[in-house]
Amino acid sequence: MAYERHQQYSIVDWIINNNVDPEHKLIRLTNRIDWDEIIEKLSIYYSTKGRKAKRIRMMVALHMVKHLYNLSDEQVVEGLQENLYWMAFCGVPTEQIAAGGALRWLEASTMTKFRKRIGAEGMNAIEEVIRDQILSDGRRRPRAMIVDTTCMEKHIAYPTDAGLLDKGRRKLVRMIRNIKDSGVAFRGTVRSYVRVGKKALCEINKFGRTSQKTVRDSLTKLVYYAERVMDHVPEVLKETKVAIKRRPGAQLRRLSRELEETAERVRTVLRQTKERLKGIHVPDKLYSLHEPQVACITKGKRPKEHEYGCKVSLAINQQGYVIAHREYPDNRHDNQTLTEALDDWKEATGTLPEVVNMDRGYRYKEGNEPKVLSKVRRVVIPSMGKTSIPQERTRWFKKHKRKRSSIEAVISHLKQEHRMDRCRYRGLGGDQVNMSLATIAWNTKKWALDTG
Length: 452
Fold this sequence. Notes:
The protein is α/β, with parallel strands linked by helices. It has 17 helices and 7 strands. The protein folds into 3 domains: 11-118, no CATH class; 140-156 and 293-430, 2-Layer Sandwich (Nucleotidyltransferase, domain 5); 161-277, Four Helix Bundle (Hemerythrin (Met), subunit A) (Up-down Bundle), CATH 1.20.120. Strands 1, 2, 3, 4, 5, 6 and 7 form a 7-stranded mixed sheet that branches. Helix 4 crosses helix 5, helix 4 (56-68) packs across helix 17 and helix 8 (108-135) crosses helix 17 (427-449).
């Protein structure tokens, strides 16, 4: 029997010669988003000299995919090598696929470097381009504004005085040893207190709910250990500055700056711990050593009475698109965010809304309303208590009052699906970047599913 030869296509030929589903949401977004304008706005963050950077289109699309599917940097980079639709959305050149080599276009660290390169301003520029495209459709009129606030938690451990003291002491010891290893000589040795510090911390965690005396005694020990390490910091900083004058170097300057900043934060933790042991309330406490801007946001809700992060003001239109948002590093009252929310709305849409819809937390005392609110035609704020205002009995007030709860669903989707539940980017700028990317993911997902 003769051997019959069959010509078989390789997987690469199949990928190139077959079309993807044009109705897939990523393919629809690929055709709708104005990539040229995004590239033009972000090109100012790049230099014309040096090694060529990764394509702007690919980096922006990867961050959108990351927050669309709630993935990490490593998962996104790995998925780009496997997912055909991600390749099409990110604009991967087909000649690289046809070449038959390994599909390794970037590493996870490239994502971090891109975020640091463009910062919060660059992410805001991307958001503006997409938002302007969405608003250019006449059916998505920004006539009514629904506004609310929420908390975006930071990726930190639950803050306790004992944990901050132990972590601060260990961090100082590690920094001092790094400076010593760099060639800076100083008198004496720095004791780490690792064993006794761990023992005191375990006693607090073990007897925290049964023996207040044990907790106070162990906390006093942690204060003593941290103070003994802090006693070495002035001398180490002095010898480091002398060494920098003798042999200037970026590494020693960086270590000296980090030690000085950490010592100042540990000093703050020591002060607030001593005040707490005396029974004195300390306002504006420090809740994290590496994220000092974190605030305690108290909403009074049963699952989480206190959350640690930043406060976010969110404004959506009637269709559920996020039009404006702003992040605050404190727990200010809701009505103190309304003026800026209206200004951001006007900047985004070109006009103030006809209707502003909000909850009771935005109520003002009579005569203290912001001036810009007087330019709004209708204001929907339910009254406090059992007495109602005459407007609450009108048809338009009841209609918009029912629609206010739609923003709660938007906030839930942003937190559960688009990484707004916990910000893993550093600083207040990281909060702004995370919020912009979550907003882009939510708006583009709605935009892709909108077939009208």
